[in-house]
């Protein structure tokens, strides 16, 4: 048959279609295409990531029709590798959930434990960023530069907040081995100075160190669950709450994760996934929906108070086998009030705080349950390894002795009274508050242990409940495991389950060894000897060392709820008094046996020093609030003038990530604006919102400058007349009265060089506006600094030619400068 030149392409095209259909048919039938064919897969060695490119294995002639193609194979994990759902809730004490003896219903955690295993001696670092860094990398928190939360980073190898390229996270390892990796929720491991939409994004969840394909969540300690102004999709700020009253991030995040599970199941059903699911619950602010508050209130769980609650929990724990029969309930501390000493008003307030918190935990667990059920509905639960870690540290004491209507009060050294808090009683847990419960509830939710979050010396700060299930592999359903383990052991467990080796090199950088040990050896044998014989703990100078059934512990000199800017009372290295516990005989650290065993204590102290040297724990630093203000890296070092044309939205972390920091200094803000015929209103410049912050805006055409001082006071400067059409120069000038944190001063508002208002403000904010709201020009996001004046987004309806901010030098006393910069600590 004669074939013309014109029909050749069609013939080749038809042949290509036939070949493609054949390959697709083979794949659809479950057959693996041969090496080199389109759609062929391979499992890589995994020790060197990425795997070196394979040589071309086809044949090349001058004519394609006489050549043989060969495609690079798609990388897939080893056959049978499980999906992974890694869950970490926030600030949940060991005994808060029902799964570990608590009275708060957590049926999802119950389900994982009942279908898998409960781990009753699992430990964290006592604080959030450090625990999460250790969790994701499989290395101790100081080893990955996160000895403290990233907001408090200092310039030492164990504390600078930057996870390095030689300690990449599990997301990058699994992704390069063929997993889909996604992260939902809290990211408190991105350094503040790169946490704006300008990046750089190397240290973000989707960067090459953490390595997740997809991210949906918030950057920072916490966020409002109603109006999360620090929410991102990958690296782009988003505001899905605008125009949706009742929207809540706890539910929205579950929706996002479920959407990704369903998408993968339809688009790439054979590809294993790893989901890191880290909701804001139950870190402050406690923001459950009204439905959940009503449910919990109807149960009357806390009417008898925190002391009776401890007794109830302890009895539950013995009944469940969570603690042994010979375990002792540790003593109630003298500096926390007993329930029967409280007034009726105090009890009313504290019960409200507990109900809202419990509702938040139950709500969070319910939404996690929806994610688990989505995996089940997709038919993938049997081959999914689920690790549910109940809290990244012990229950939080950061609510102080009376609780907090707003977390930002204590950030600025304000300890609200019961009377202050009662003003917000009806709104507790709604978007009008940023609340936290009183300290004694934290002690109760760490039953039977001593201490709380932030305290690394005792299990109340470091012991968290954990449950693990993998139906295809873990068969001892409902079993309890008592081997001593630490959060750094999770990554090795995942890698062993997936059949993936620990990498030697990733992206051209040699990797430091993973420091955890796999827990897989516990799956089949409840009595298997533990494989973690030594583990150190340190946070804010409090510290401990576990070794072969003993714990030496140095508790804090100042309780974590006594937050202040005062200097620590003693030498951090030598001023702490050590205790000793034989935890094989004394499960709960109830009996200090240091006096009877001085030699053992000395040996344990020496072991701690050796471990601290090895893992970059030194220098010890017991400062808390001052480290938030300590100097940090910046892409605008020494900058004292900022200029904007607007609009600009969602710039976080003033003074660090690119926005001007107005605190503890004099400053001038100048706005050059054009007012159209008919007048204008709207936001010129703002940072903060409902809970604290400032705004410079026009309302009813009148120039206005407002400071919101932690909802306790609003100070306002305002012109008497609306601005006429045309060009105007608006100036707000603040003169701080004297050196010192939070000092007052005098503000002056000018229009076209004429003073229109001047007044004194006796106090200002000493430490920070907060991370939940962001800096904006020409519009406001999140919430309003004064909702009686305007509602977000409040865009400026005129034209902003330029907004210029000029900052004076920081005005601190010599003692404050020394405290913030850590001069005393660095000389130790």
UniProtKB/TrEMBL annotation:
Domain Sulfatase N-terminal: 82-500
Keywords associated with the record: Calcium, Hydrolase, Metal-binding, Signal
Disordered: region residues: 28-50
Pfam families to which the protein is assigned, alphabetical: Sulfatase
CDD domains (UniProt xref): PAS_like
GO molecular function list: hydrolase activity; metal ion binding
Domain of life from the UniProt record: Bacteria
Biased composition, class Low complexity, residue ranges: 28-43
Signal peptide: 1-26
UniProt keyword Hydrolase, yes or no: yes
Residue stretches spanning the membrane: none
PANTHER family in the record: ARYLSULFATASE FAMILY MEMBER (PTHR42693), BLL2667 PROTEIN (PTHR42693:SF43)
Family: Belongs to the sulfatase family.
Entry protein name: Arylsulfatase
Organism from which the protein derives: Amaricoccus solimangrovi
